[in-house]
Amino acid sequence: MALPENEHSKEQEGPVIRDNRRIDPETGEPRVPEGTAEESSPDSEAAAAEPTEAQAPAENDAELERLRQEVAERTDDLKRLQAEYVNYRRRVDRDRAAVREQALAQVLTELLPVLDDIGRARAHNELVGGFKSVGEALESLVSRMGLKKYGEKGDEFDPTVHEALTMVPSADVTVPTIVEVFQPGYLMGERVVRPARVVVAGPTEEDAGASTEEAATEEAPAASEPTGTSDTSDRSDEDEKTAGDE
After folding, report:
1. 148-213 architecture in CATH?
2. CA–CA separation, 220 vs 224, rounded Å?
3. How confident is the model at residue 94, as a pLDDT?
4. Low complexity compositional bias: what residue ranges (predicted)?
5. Residues with Cβ < 8 Å from 3, sequence gap 6 or more?
6. For the segment 158-190, what is each residue's pLDDT rounded down to a tens digit?
7. Beta strands 191-194 and 185-188: pairing type?
8. What is the mean pLDDT of the chain?
């Protein structure tokens, strides 16, 4: 009995052995089982690469934006730090100048009695010889340090820088005026180191009253003078009265 052609071919082929090992025993490389994966084509590789290439610019833009934000924050921090440093330097310089001025004023205040003695000696013609040289050198030194003498006879009295020991009336002045200086004053810049002690002459009460009346007269309105209309009416009344008497 003859076997069918298919069965005969199977008997000739024998059992089929398939190697399903994932790693090639000869090369040691992984291998893909037959029928489970299709061969990759250039089109499939391009399609797989397109999402990656499109995603890369977006990630780069986000990273660039983050870096820009960090740079802006660091720049603002540096600006704030610089402004604080400038303010600190200004405060230090101002405090240093104030301390220097205070210390200098204290030293010059201690020298004022010596300057007064030099002034009295000059007034009595006793500033001669070596004492004159020393006195003038000291006055020049304190002048260079910013000390300024003030308070002279004939100056207008200023209560902010002058100390009035007494005040006498005088008909020769119209405003309070210094007539005698007991002790000169000294300034250092705008600061009064010592006020000038003076005698002040002020205007008398009659002069003050006259000045007030003159000011009131000058400020009086011109409308208080009689007008031409009132003069005409008065003249008409006088003419009528004269005619009645006749």
Report:
1. Roll (2.30)
2. 8
3. 92
4. 43-59, 209-231
5. 11
6. 999 999 999 898 888 889 999 999 999 999 888
7. antiparallel
8. 76
